[in-house]
Amino acid sequence: MAPKGEGIVEWTDQLEEALIDIMVDKFQRTHTSAWKWKDWEQMNTELEQKFPGVTLGADKLRTKSRRLKSQYSQFTQLIQHTGVGWDEQTNTVKASPDI
Known about the structure:
Blueprint: H1 13-30, H2 37-50, H3 58-79, E1 84-87, E2 92-95
Antiparallel strand pairs: 1-2
């Protein structure tokens, strides 16, 4: 593991999307998301092959996965409120000012 401050990676949209694609593919093959450490290491290897020079590690992938799950839960709760919607063209939440 890299010492604090070293190896910090900025999660770009492309890197995040690639991780999600890898996790979806893994889920479709295994039919579970209760992955073991070796599974996270394998996903890390796949991601590093797609993005040479990027070193993340299995622990960072697990942490990012948890954050994505939390964000997704918050997002789905938000758009379930009456009067709140999602504009796919602008990628923004739409709601009246009083909401």
